[in-house]
Amino acid sequence: MGALFDLLGGWIKGIFIDGIMSNFTDLFNEVSNQVGDVAVQTGTSPAAWNPGIFSLIRTLSETIILPIAGIVLTFVMCYELIQLIIEKNNMHEIDTWIFFKWIFKTFIAVMILSNTFNIVMAVFDVSQHVVNNSAGLIQNTTAVPPDMLENFRETLENLSIGELIGLWMQAGLIKISIFVMNIVIFVIAYGRMIEIYLLTSLAPIPFATVANKETGQMGQNYFKSLLAVAFQGFLIMVCVAIYAVLIQSIATSGDPIKAVWSVLGYTVLLCFTLFKTGTLSKSIFGAH
User: Where are the domains of the chain?
Assistant: First the structure.
């Protein structure tokens, strides 16, 4: 009779161990897939991320914003000419070279304004190259080796049925929580791309101000913001890489219950750090 109970107990333990291992295997695989998804989202240029939206933004910018930027540029260059004339002792000492200087600066300003989208896309091409290279290195470290999972299974086999039932219920709850956290991560990744499109749509106006020392501060701040949003993708990749390594270490921990709640804690930490990447990137590039 005792052997029958032992056999039944082993069968029940096997069911719960298989269920827990299935949850954790799915979780570890999801971490690896998540790194790949974030790498795709952050490593894709605005033009390739959604060609339809990008075409719409470009059309709006070129047909509505660019004419306004042309008016702004006209005002800026007239103001620049006045400054060049009066800075020489209130027009008592006028050299003809200042007019050539003004013509050259106007030519450069017009060229910058005419190639606004090319300049903006060049920034994102550089950041995309950085993110894609980092993604290749990071994804190689996110896969959980089979021996780690085997060690974790051996730890589960030493637990009682009651402990396994509690752990199985907790693992199911954590799995639902992770799903909710993934939605938050999705919103952050897509929100960054929307911010990029919003910045791109108004690009001609700040670019029209760069020719003048006083009004050029607007263009400089815009360019810093552009760099900050572009390289925010790299910070996002670093956050996900740290998260993947932390999750990986759970498989080798000796306390399954602690491991279950560590997954939730690490995921909440990931969401918090992803929210901070935008502020951190702006502080690094001095954007405000």
Answer: 13-65+116-285
Model pLDDT for residues 54-74, shown as the tens digit of each residue: 889 989 888 999 999 999 999
**Distance, CA of 280 to CA of 228 (rounded, Å):** 9
pLDDT in tens, 92-147: 566 677 778 888 888 888 898 888 888 888 888 888 888 877 766 665 555 555 66
pLDDT tens per residue, range 250-284: 655 556 667 667 777 877 888 888 888 888 988 88
Please check whether residue 41 is in contact with residue 193, taking contact to mean a CB–CB distance below 8 angstroms.
Answer: yes
Query: Measured at the alpha carbon of residue 129, what is the angle toward residues 123 and 131, in degrees to the nearest 5?
Result: 100
In order of 59, 209, 210, the CA distances from 73 in angstroms are 20, 6, 9
Tell me how many degrees the CA angle 178-182-188 measures, rounded to the nearest 5: 145
